[in-house]
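User: Predict the structure for this protein chain, please.
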Amino acid sequence: MQESKHYSNTRHLTITMLSALLGLVLLESRGLVVWADRLETGTLQHIAQPVTQWMDQRLRPLRIGEMRPAVLHQLEVIGWSESSTQLPPLAPTERTDLPTPATLSSIATPITPAAPVIAALMPVADTLAAVPTQTPLHANLSELNARPTLRIGLVGDSMMAVGLSAVLQQHWTIKGRVQFSRAYKSGTGLARPDTYNWQQQYPILIGSPPPDLVIVSIGANDAQNFVQADQVIKFGSTEWRKQYGQRVIDFMGELTQHGTQVIWVGLPPMKKAGFDQKIDQINRLTYAIVQQYPNSSWWNPAPYLINAQGEFIEFGETQTGKTVRLRALDGIHLSNEGADRLATPLMQWLSPSAAAPASPANSTAATPLPLNR
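Assistant: Here is the predicted structure, written as structure tokens:
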């Protein structure tokens, strides 16, 4: 009897695992393609890319992926989601008529390093200076507040798409005066224009007229090697910093070309120490570049998301003493409550004379803590 039960349990476990794997493939075939594209350059990526693209090409006509939002909604209904603050649904933010990664790889314009520009804007020493704890927002606020309608662009990867963009839109207090345009795409970055070329896609995503102010958060997917002229460029090397730095410069040129002011939100501390060290390198590089641009600010979010010892925290207390999750389970993204900690000072900076920003009763807004990293 025990052997039969053991066999049954093993069989049921195997069936469950295979069913879950099948569901993942059917509902997330496009996500698997993005995952394969973002792998480190090497044998695994060489195998994974054609396999995931083949599956996606054959499953896409069945439109099974369109069931994904409904499935996630049902999981949320039965209590699968851990979010304690449910935001109302927003209008679709990611275009579905853009070129696929396979198409982009054939049309992406290689970005070559421009030595004079790099020398002028970015230190290329082996060690870049650490990012200051306090990084003031110094864009031309009086000019922004003088405009009858303020157009704000929310730009970046999933660090912007998850949490921060929704909280900024939901809690903004200057009703009617602020108009948002959204240009974010999960699973993308500046390191791999062969996968997703932000230089080409940003004008399409942001639309017209251009925003007066852009709040951008990008780079969490960029801690990886990439290939340039058939050569693997190792993450963190001097050549990598030159290449990536030039892409940041080109992107800043795209963001600011119409007189748009920029707030570049740096990446927060990450849970895994090794990944956090890589993110720190990206922060140092983007800070060194962005701070050179007039009417642009590189803003450090870390003081709002650490403890008194300067360490990564998953949970924090609200003003009412309630413990809430600040970071997602992956140790990378922000929860809605974590995003609220950043949205509140951003809104207070932009509208200091307005009423205090609307926030839920369990707001996690907090005074920045000292940063020891």
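The radius of gyration is 22 Å.
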